[in-house]
TrEMBL record, chains A, B:
The modification N6-(pyridoxal phosphate)lysine is found at residue 223. HAMAP family: Kynureninase (MF_01970). Pyridoxal 5'-phosphate binds at residues 99-100, 127-130, 197, 200, 222, 252, 278. It comes from Salinihabitans flavidus. This is Kynureninase.
Length: 412, 412
């Protein structure tokens, strides 16, 4: 077992093909930010985008900016650019609303496309909002929801009664990556549709949605996509479903002629029928600035660094005597995980809080998960080394005996 | 008929108790902005609020701002402040999502509160998204929608089969103001619930939602409330309905313990159960800055000036020979209108475009409505005088014979 030195990490940084990308982000002094899977760092270009929108588009041009600054077409313009990052051809993605709302739209559309089926499949360990939206979408009806257990195989739950399968490809707690192609194929063989929640993968994992024959996908833009706090989410609907797909959040933005002010809803052709109301333009501009950073970036290069960072982090923790009590719950095999590394540790909450005080920002998920999201755009190999050293020092200090960390509060 | 002179208007401005409020807004040089009912002007304080959120909260403090900058509680903190403007006690309003989405929540909640009833009442001339959301909310069910004709009385449509009545108190085209108390009382006498769409009244009309026993209300914050382009909407739910009210957009933000990550949805007590997903923080900050402008402002004073501006505008147009072909479609009686003045004119589109070129920004609504929203915070009596003079000059120039204005485009 060769030792991993700080110098070795610095050498890796010196050879990093994505090193320049780090310069495109603001990173606070003295902080190692391992929470890019909660809220991404700020692209330096965001400031100018916001300034223009605040000082010119809104302040000076006022209402005329809907046309002049092309606010009207932001949802699909951003959607097309975003789609490239996960293998979606133009015309299939809009940026709008929240992930939860887009799950609702996708669920209801999928249910409508499979009207004779009455089962929704998901997983018990799903990020809860996905399950809550299934409850909402099936409220007052006779749908059954089947949830796979953490160790179960989703294949066992998919049969000819299933209308839709809703899954996160990357688990928000463990970072486990599902075999999207296999599940999509299985679902399609059973005549079901799949809705992929890409919250923890969009922008960091290469995906080929079109090529795998995906049906629907949703996700947020404020994690690995760095669009800013609460920036609008996205929804992908495969072109082949668009003509038949209907969803009940049928606001005027999804109408064929929103300014004809017709009394009856007539959905527009194409992906815009998944829009509902007026989007928060300023927050949309954060997404635009974030997508600028991805221009010309190959997602395979991003993935390679993500894998290398996670590998390094896992190895550093495994070799550090001070971290012996942590249990890795992220799959060790790179092809089975996203861009995060999680450990189970009963005193994890206090350790995460103590690390934050030392400038290493990770987060905690109940009941005992220490979670580190590794954004390959702005993290260095050197950061992995320092973070693990500080983590070990924090554990050694037994922060769970410190009354300041006794009461658990949300770390988001 | 005494002449109204420009000097007379300037004298009115000199006595205006709201004159100082104008200084709280950025207004472009050379522009008379009569489109505050589409997108309000920018409060000067917005810049500092945005700067703090961009440069400190997001850039420096990153994920910790959810707690440290109190992003978590923005929906209800802004809601409480907003509620004061329309007579809602704290704990009944949240700022979130879009008007269309909030209509959906309110409709589904009202339908759930009146489960044995199968009729929704609205009006044919409603802003279309309201009707589209009724279609969505009743999609696939056996609900009937009854729409009152423009000249009809809503009372004729309300009976014991009606679950909910959805109405805009101020008509977006004509500016006509409904008698909210009468309709609320009639609906309640029939056992129905009322959902008020306040898009064209919130922030400009004094209302007493609690006192009139209102049930639900929704509205946007980017018109007379000046929150910025696409800033999030609001929803009001009377406290007495909250415990029983359920709505299917049941995302994690409406959960009793969002960070306990429970698999089943358990709605939080109170108004937060009308939240769904993560809100666009930057756009929320625009609402916060806008509400600062309203601090200490009496809505009766706002209304008095709004009425006076509209009266003046109507009189100026009526007396101007150059405007003789315009037909006023806004009620002349102040108590029957909101804060806008609209005229029917077949060549209205070209005239509005020509006026915009001269710096007088109004808007146009198909098929023939020239619409002027008069925001009393930043408009002067003098502006009314100048706007009408310019309108008359534009009409005299017959812009509809100009090919530049031949093709109608959305003015929003």
């Amino acid at each position: 077992m060769t030792e991993i030195t700080r110098q070795h990490c610095k050498d890796l940084d010196a050879q990093d093909p994505l090193a320049a990308m780090r310069d495109a982000f603001h990173l606070p002094e003295g902080v190692i930010y391992l929470d890019g899977n909660s809220l991404g760092a700020q692209p330096k270009g965001a400031r100018a985008a916001f300034d223009r929108t605040i000082d010119v588009e809104w302040r000076e041009d006022l209402i005329t900016s809907w046309g002049k600054a092309e606010w009207f077409t932001l949802p699909e313009r951003l959607g097309d650019r975003l789609g490239r990052l996960f293998g979606a051809a133009p015309g299939q993605v809009v940026v709008c609303d929240t992930t939860s709302l887009n799950i609702y739209k996708a669920l209801r559309a999928a249910m409508g496309l499979r009207p004779e089926r009455r089962v929704i499949v998901s997983e018990k360990a799903s990020f809860p909002t996905d399950l809550y939206m299934i409850e909402g979408a099936t409220m007052g009806s006779d749908y059954e929801t089947r949830l796979v257990e953490p160790e179960g195989d989703i294949a066992d739950l998919i049969d000819a009664d299933v209308a839709a399968v809703l899954l996160s490809n990357v688990d928000y707690r463990t970072g486990r990556l599902l075999d999207m192609e296999r599940i999509t194929r299985l679902a399609h063989e059973a005549g079901a549709l799949v809705i992929w929640d890409l919250c923890h993968s969009a922008g960091v994992l290469p995906m080929e949605m079109d090529a795998m024959g995906a049906d629907f996908a949703v996700g947020c833009t404020y994690k690995y996509l760095n669009g800013g706090p609460g920036s609008p989410a996205f929804i992908y609907v495969a072109e082949r479903h668009q003509a038949e797909a209907r969803q009940p959040l049928s606001g005027w933005w999804g109408h064929a002629a929103p300014f004809a002010f017709e009394a009856e809803f007539r959905p527009v052709e194409g992906i815009r029928r998944f829009l509902c109301g007026t989007q928060p333009i300023l927050s949309m501009k954060g997404v635009e600035a974030a997508l600028d950073v991805f221009e010309g970036i190959d997602m395979q290069t991003v993935r390679a660094k993500s894998v290398a960072l996670c590998d390094l982090f896992i190895r550093l923790v495994a070799r550090h005597p001070g971290c012996a009590d942590l249990r890795l719950i992220t799959p060790e095999a790179a092809e089975e995980r996203g861009s995060q590394v999680s450990f189970a540790f009963d005193e994890g909450y206090a350790v995460v809080r103590a690390m934050i005080e030392r400038g290493v920002i990770g987060d905690f998920r109940a009941p005992n998960v220490m979670r580190f999201g590794l954004a390959p755009y702005y993290l260095r190999y050197e950061d992995m080394f320092d973070a693990v050293e500080i983590m070990a020092e924090c554990i050694a200090a037994r922060p769970w005996e410190d009354s300041r960390f006794a009461q658990m509060a949300a770390v988001t």
